[in-house]
Design brief:
The protein is mainly α. Helix content is about 60%, strand content about 5%.
């Protein structure tokens, strides 16, 4: 014999089966251990905040096991959509205490984080999303909200770190990356105003984006420099910024070279070469100014080109869909503000 050789196929099958059993055994117990660890971490997380005292009458309803989780999620979603965020939060927190599947738990934690975010509880939203990402790292929507939380807290370096993780899972985030760079430059306390201006203009010229953000900053910090970057292609979406400038901030040489600006400031009552406009609102105001009637004024509303929501305030990131650089400025005629003399005769 050349030595002991195990050529029997039955022996190989036994060894292979034993290996599968060992791997399966350890995998099963490792899974139990990880689930137990997750449940302990989740329990500690849920103990951080109490249910809102005003809504403790919901406690018996929320803990009733006869009510399906899907029904409670629909109820939480209804409260969310109606703006009653505290009730929505309480429902999601209670659902997390139920033994749901991993995917259900992931969805509930994400909704809880988004509700905290929408309600303005940034620290709680951050902690919830961090806990979610610890359990389920590949959750792009959680990463996006976490990035925006850091952005709103002006922690731009941390926001950029989250963005890098997000870019590994999603594409088309170049605008978000540029937005963070511009905002970081604007709020960098180590830079002088002149250094900020140079850095922001360099980014602006290279990418040709965020006209409202950059030019709004320049009009506040370096008025004459701002006029150098005004052109006919972008002026309409800057109407509200330009309308609210003081007369001392205006550059009439540039205004006279761009027909829309000439019409805009004629509507405001300044002497320009325009006596009419193709824009209805401006044409009405020009006509009223020419007749010495100051009973109308110009106001603005702001449309998001991405989700089509309309807001009464300007924004750089849409409050609804969270996309950046999607604002469209819309003109609205309104009654002018005036005072009358009611002195007693």
């Amino acid at each position: 014999m050349d030595g002991l050789e195990y050529r029997d196929p039955l022996f190989g099958i036994i060894v292979f089966t034993a290996l599968i059993f060992i791997v399966t055994f350890f995998n099963y117990w490792w899974g139990l251990f990880k689930r137990r660890e997750q449940n302990l971490n989740l329990g500690k997380f849920l103990q951080q905040y109490e249910l809102h005292s005003d809504y403790k009458h919901l406690d018996s309803l929320l803990h009733a096991t006869s009510i399906p989780a899907k029904s409670l999620q629909l109820l939480a979603s209804a409260y969310y959509n109606s703006g009653d965020f505290e009730k929505s939060i309480d429902i999601y927190r209670t659902l997390l205490q139920r033994p749901e599947s991993p995917q259900e738990r992931k969805h509930i934690m994400l909704q809880l984080g988004k509700t905290y975010f929408k309600a303005g509880f940034m620290q709680r939203a951050k902690e919830t999303l961090m806990q979610l990402l610890k359990l389920y790292p590949r959750t792009p929507e959680a990463l996006m909200h976490l990035m925006i939380i850091h952005e709103r807290l002006k922690s731009y370096d941390k926001a950029h770190e989250v963005l890098e993780s997000l870019q590994m899972q999603q594409e088309n985030l170049q605008k978000d990356a540029l937005f963070l760079l511009i905002m970081k430059a604007m709020h960098n306390k180590k830079l002088s105003n002149e250094e900020k201006t140079i850095e922001i203009i360099k980014l602006y010229l290279h990418h040709n984006r965020f006209h409202r953000l950059v030019l709004g900053f320049l009009f506040r910090s370096n008025n004459q420099s701002a006029w150098e970057y005004i052109n006919e292609d972008i002026v309409f979406n800057l109407t509200d910024i330009l309308w609210n400038l003081r007369e001392s901030q205006l550059n009439f040489d540039i205004i006279s070279s761009i027909p829309y600006l000439s019409e805009l400031y004629a509507a405001k009552g300044y002497q320009t070469d325009s006596n009419q406009s193709n824009v209805f609102e401006l044409n009405v105001l020009i006509g009223l100014k020419n007749s010495d009637n100051c009973s109308a004024d110009l106001q603005f509303e702001y449309l998001c080109d991405e989700c089509k929501h309309v807001f009464p305030f300007s924004f750089h990131r849409c409050p609804n869909c969270l996309h950046v650089d999607t604002l469209r400025c819309e003109l609205i005629l309104s009654r002018g503000e005036y005072e009358e003399d009611y002195a007693l005769q």
